[in-house]
Amino acid sequence: MTRRNRRMARLALPRLAFLVVPAFLAGCASPPVRFYTLGAPAIATGAVPTGIVTPATPVVEVARVTLPDYLDGQDIVVRAGNQIERSATGRWASRLSLGATDLITAQLARGRTDLFVTDQPQSLPATWRLAVNISRLDVTRDGTASLEADWSIIPHDANLPILHSRAAFTQAGAAATDGDTARLTQAVLEQLAERIVAGWPR
């Protein structure tokens, strides 16, 4: 090889590296992160699906659902024994407490069309306030979702009693993917919402 050819080869090496390194990194890139919602029914928050809202319509203000700290984020997690595994490929579209609040609000609005149900602060005291505390919400690798919760229906009228309830729910299904985990999570939250609707005072 001539001196001129050797010089040209040395000059070409950095250019070749400039092309090869990005291609290598692109081949090693992680799969794109997918975002999931809890699939709450398409009911606008604070809206009554049917009927006319009047000054006499009872108002229900749904407080933000409380969850254990390790769950209340955007990470999709599954439980493996006493370990919590966070997904590298799936995320909730919003904090889980917000998604759960939206779902319960929508389910209550759909199930009780005689009420004005909202999770937004109101200018006047609501007729009732709903406070939901989820103490456990686990999806395991073997496809079992478990939820334990208590909730209180708090009337504005101090002469009426506060209604306290507690329940536990389970749901079985596939849990191989982030989508499966999202569906199981939604299923047990829907069971909770249905129980709250069924026990609402008439």
From TrEMBL:
Protein name: Membrane integrity-associated transporter subunit PqiC
PROSITE patterns for the chain: PROKAR_LIPOPROTEIN
Superkingdom to which the source organism belongs: Bacteria
Lineage of producing organism: Bacteria, Pseudomonadati, Pseudomonadota, Alphaproteobacteria, Acetobacterales
Pfam families registered for this protein in UniProt: ABC_trans_aux (PF03886)
The ABC-type transport auxiliary lipoprotein component domain, residue ranges: 36-197
SUPFAM superfamilies per the UniProt record, alphabetical: XCC0632-like (SSF159594)
